[in-house]
Design goal:
2 helices, alpha+beta, single chain, Ribosomal Protein S5, domain 2, four-stranded mixed beta sheet, about 40% helix
Length: about 90
């Protein structure tokens, strides 16, 4: 899947994550999280797994995490990427 436009998913509420996907020549993942000291590596791996399963090899994915659990992170990343790729 190719990211062709900017799109977002999620909120900045507690236990959620705000994800922005936008076009970029390389694959960049930016994570800001209130729990990055404990779970930063796991969050990054989750994002990479979702991107890999969708066939995304370029784009800028920015996360502002407020303590979301793994399944929420997966859903928000997938939604933002699908929206940015032109899917509804």
């Amino acid at each position: 899947m190719k990211i062709t436009t900017s799109a977002v998913a999620g909120t900045l509420e507690s236990s959620d994550v705000y994800v922005k996907a936008e076009p970029c020549g390389t694959l960049e993942i930016e994570i800001e999280s209130v729990v990055s000291a404990q779970f930063g590596d796991q969050i990054r791996q989750t994002v990479q797994d979702v991107l890999s399963s969708l066939g995304v090899d370029s784009g800028r994915i920015s996360l502002n995490d407020k303590g979301a659990i793994d399944c929420v992170i997966r859903a928000r990343v997938e939604t933002a990427v699908r929206r940015a790729g032109g899917e509804n």
